[in-house]
Amino acid sequence: MTALTALIAAGTNPQEVSPDPTALALSGVYFAQLAAVAVAVAVVTSEYHPRLILLTLSASPRRTTVFTAKALTVTAAVLLAALPGVLGALLAGRSAQHGTHQLPLSDGSLQRAVLGTVLYLLLVALLSVGIALAVRHTAAATGTVLALLYGPYLATQLLNMSTHTLHLVQKFSPMTAGLAVQTTTGAGTAPLAPWTGLAVLAAYAAGALAVGWTLLQRRDA
């Protein structure tokens, strides 16, 4: 999977996709989201394989409480890691791009890109929670999330699509749309406005959580 992410990162030409120093500095999100997915899926599925979920549900028979606890655990873990991680990546990336024109740290669009990247990682993690609750298997849940994130992008790179189809795929792909929040220059080719793109990812996460919550309520452990 790391090789796949490296392929995506390598295939992303900053001059073609976004001549945007901030987005380039934050491009480590392609790798960071793998960790977010892994943590979120593990929080859910680690209890299913040894059937520890039976003990959890016995101790807390209200399944909404179990659902909320898992979502909050993942939220806390991701935010604690993402906040310093994204800031560190930004500073390191800016240092590596010494000599290029860069926005001041006080710039609103740069601050939005940083905050948006943190929220992007959180939403990816919550998407993973919902899918993991629905699938209840580590490998299957991880594979499903990664297919949602990377599949549409790889399709745009490998398939001969019309411009209209390409734009539609980019607009409704959770990863491509969500990462539009990193755009800080008008010259970028992000498929959607920054917050609109993040809202697309939020819709995916909300839908997955709704499905996961519903199945948790209705199925036997």
TrEMBL record:
<feature type="transmembrane region" description="Helical">
    <location>
        <begin position="140"/>
        <end position="159"/>
    </location>
</feature>
<keyword id="KW-0812">Transmembrane</keyword>
<feature type="transmembrane region" description="Helical">
    <location>
        <begin position="29"/>
        <end position="50"/>
    </location>
</feature>
<feature type="transmembrane region" description="Helical">
    <location>
        <begin position="195"/>
        <end position="216"/>
    </location>
</feature>
<feature type="transmembrane region" description="Helical">
    <location>
        <begin position="71"/>
        <end position="93"/>
    </location>
</feature>
<dbReference type="GO" id="GO:0140359">
    <property type="term" value="F:ABC-type transporter activity"/>
</dbReference>
<keyword id="KW-1133">Transmembrane helix</keyword>
<protein>
    <submittedName>
        <fullName>ABC transporter permease subunit</fullName>
    </submittedName>
</protein>
<dbReference type="GO" id="GO:0005886">
    <property type="term" value="C:plasma membrane"/>
</dbReference>
<feature type="transmembrane region" description="Helical">
    <location>
        <begin position="113"/>
        <end position="133"/>
    </location>
</feature>
<keyword id="KW-0472">Membrane</keyword>
